[in-house]
Write a structure and sequence with these properties.
single chain; 233 residues; alpha/beta; Rossmann fold; 2 domains; six-stranded mixed β-sheet; five-stranded antiparallel β-sheet; 7 helices; 33% helix; ATP-binding; P-loop_NTPase; ABC_transporter-like_ATP-bd
Length: 233
């Protein structure tokens, strides 16, 4: 039987009477890349914010590793939601050191993470002088510092150039081999097709599809069908 690292049970989020997320039940298999797809404004970021404790569900349950989610679980969840949490006046090492001091993590782990996200050679360069791709990798490093079981990435490829996209894509694909489950949200079908093992498609706050990646060439057809159905609803 497949183990799920994270599940949601009929999760709903309302803002002033408007439902941004409507009864969504996700099942995220352990040690995979799960692509959360949907048009802009579909509710993807709202879902991810509920999984990371930024927002509280109006109703429904979130389960992590077989138990009801609590804030203690954030110790095993790494997240890069919206903009990377980077101090621009600090170096890559110093940014990680700030987080490491909070978590009680060794300098050896900082060096390991800098190597992992390919920022080991940035030296005294301040993060404010980094390219967007470098800032994304630094944000990813901060999320990875505590050796999370689950990594949540919200539109991580936005604004990256082709080289940055390829580097991040390859990094994401490696994580399940290291015991890390990845949830990555996007509206770019081609990128999810190249990285994800399983997908969920969100449209108008509702889950229209969840399962294995469709056969090659069928993802766009499925996505457009679900987006049209829920837009009409």
């Amino acid at each position: 039987m497949m183990k799920h690292i994270l599940e949601t049970e009929c999760v709903t989020k309302e803002f002033r009477g408007h439902s941004a997320v409507c009864g969504v039940s996700l099942q995220i298999p352990e040690c995979c890349v799960y692509g959360l797809l949907g048009p802009n404004g579909a509710g993807k970021s709202t879902i991810l914010k509920m999984l990371t404790g930024i927002l509280r569900p109006t109703s429904g349950k979130v389960l992590f590793d077989g138990h009801s989610w609590s804030r203690k679980d954030l110790a095993e969840i790494g997240a890069l939601v919206e903009t990377p949490p980077v101090y621009e006046n600090l170096t890559a090492w110093e940014n990680l050191k700030v987080r490491a001091l909070i978590l009680g993590i060794s300098d050896a782990r900082i060096r390991e993470v800098l190597d992992l996200v390919d920022l080991a050679d940035t030296g005294k360069k301040k993060a404010g002088a980094f390219s967007l791709g470098m800032k994304q990798r630094l944000g990813l490093g901060i999320a990875l510092l505590g050796r999370p079981k689950l990594l949540i990435l919200d539109e991580p490829l936005n604004g990256l150039d082709p080289i940055g996209i390829q580097e991040l894509r390859e990094m994401i694909r490696r994580f399940p081999q290291e015991g890390i489950t990845v949830i990555v949200s996007s509206h770019i079908l081609s990128e999810i097709a190249q990285t994800a093992d399983y997908i969920g498609i969100i449209a108008n706050g509702m889950l229209g599809y969840q399962g294995e990646m469709p056969e090659e060439g069928h993802l766009e057809e499925l996505f457009m069908k679900i987006a049209a159905k829920h837009r009409a609803a």
